[in-house]
């Protein structure tokens, strides 16, 4: 017998069904909802995230209140600090951000776009003290 507390709905979102919008976690990105949060009753969110403005100060050091978080880079690149390790994430790369890992997205390309899958859907972000300084972003030409 199926556990009804885990029930989800079928969803099929086509490219023109949802638009990129502002108002997500970061004001320098735009977000496109892929319908997963509604289909999973808030257990998981899947969204496309795209650069909307040049990096000035980045995200700052933070952790997410999430049980699961992956980033799959679709276009361009982003530079993160994960704890004290600088990490270049390029198109085709997939990163699993373990719960509680301190990180800082400090630079990205103008064409950066990634798929983000996070559980729960309403995950939070908490600023924390970082283990080291993060490099400055490069200027966009």
From TrEMBL:
Pfam families, alphabetized: Cupin_2
Q: Which domain of life is it from?
A: Bacteria
User: Cupin type-2 domain spans which residues?
Assistant: 54-104
Gene3D superfamilies, per this entry? Jelly Rolls
Q: Which InterPro entries match?
A: Cupin_2, RmlC-like_jellyroll, RmlC_Cupin_sf
State the protein's name: Cupin
Q: Which organism is it from?
A: Pandoraea eparura
